[in-house]
Design a protein that fits this description.
globular, Aldehyde Dehydrogenase, Chain A, domain 1, alpha/beta, 317 residues, 3-stranded mixed beta sheet, 11 helices, 5-stranded parallel beta sheet
Length: 317
């Protein structure tokens, strides 16, 4: 034996390694262990950060007291930071070509499909049936490609050349409103969020979205997809936490140009309308519960976060 090696039985000098004692193997390969409980961060300005307060809530397995994950509980400060990131990114994003924005949405769909098993598993962990989770994932991928296809077409549909009684050309075109805050559908783990984010960003807006409180894992993982796709930092910002704590900020912030409320709570809807009037921001409300239907996707969702700009130009100059 030399240098911890021995000759094998046929004496050809080939080196073999002796195995570690069973006692040491057992120490390094335990038969049972506690799983690591993941703490999901929030996505602000293209970076994954914890809530500035350090608070989090424990997401439980449905029907049990077992903790599934720790989820950041965001504050007003987190929302303000997200709005700053969204505003800084909005001009560049709005200035990108329609073709480029369509490419980027299509890339998000590709990345989402590449992690399909993870998304389905996380939805199942949150209490969604396997078949329903697979259906929601497929619909989410298709919805992204749907709006990617509209990226360079909605202007032709909604813009116009207007007849006037003078020697002028009169054009109406669409421009993004700017920064959009989104209170995502509370009953949908992934599809509802994508169905509100995609039409907003394809039209040149940037967004700050609040994930559903009881179904946050798909939103957090979707942020990982965004971080590894071609979406510029700040275009999409995703927060987690209590809707009751953040709803007022989403509706009243003076540098937000439109707010999308998803839900059927009349008190919340009324609060959003009242607070949004402080800076005359556009308040949009969707009360649908089923985002799988055909009418849950159409170019009018893009129009919801667009402004019409009319330009006059004299003829003959």
């Amino acid at each position: 034996m030399r240098n911890g090696k021995t000759r094998n039985g046929n004496g050809n000098g080939a080196a073999t390694h002796t195995r570690a004692p069973a006692r040491l193997r057992a120490q390094h390969h335990p038969t049972a262990r506690l799983p690591i409980t993941k703490t999901y961060k929030v996505f602000i300005g293209g970076k994954f950060v914890r809530s500035e307060s350090g608070r989090y809530y424990a997401l439980k397995h449905p029907g049990s007291d077992q903790t599934l994950a720790n989820v950041c509980q965001c504050t007003r400060k987190d929302f303000r930071d997200s709005v700053v990131a969204a505003r800084n990114a909005q001009g560049t994003w709005a200035g990108a070509s329609a073709y480029n924005r369509g490419q980027i949405l299509y890339r998000i769909a590709e990345m989402l499909e590449g992690r399909d098993e993870q998304f389905v598993a996380e939805m199942v962990q949150q209490g969604i049936a396997q078949a329903a989770a697979q259906l929601e994932l497929i619909a989410s991928i298709d919805r992204l490609t749907y709006y990617a296809g509209w990226a360079d077409k909605y202007q032709q549909v909604f813009s116009s050349v207007n007849p006037v009684a003078s020697s002028h050309f009169n054009f109406s075109i669409l421009e993004p409103v700017g920064v959009v805050s989104i209170l995502c559908p509370p009953q949908s783990a992934l599809l509802g969020m994508i169905s509100t984010i995609a039409p907003s960003i394809v039209g040149g807006n940037t967004v700050v979205a609040l994930a559903p409180r009881d179904l946050p894992l798909s939103a957090a993982t979707f942020a990982e997809v965004l971080a590894t796709s071609d979406v510029p930092a700040g275009v999409v910002n995703i927060l987690t936490g209590e809707r009751s704590e953040l709803l007022e900020q989403f509706a009243s912030h003076m540098d937000v140009n439109a707010v999308i409320y998803c839900g059927d709570d009349e008190a919340e809807r009324g609060a959003v309308r009242a607070k949004s009037s402080l800076n005359v921001k556009r308040a949009i409300s969707y009360d649908r519960k089923d985002w799988l239907t055909d009418d849950a996707q159409n170019p009018y969702f893009i129009l919801d976060t667009q402004e019409v700009k009319t330009t006059w130009h004299p003829i003959g100059i």
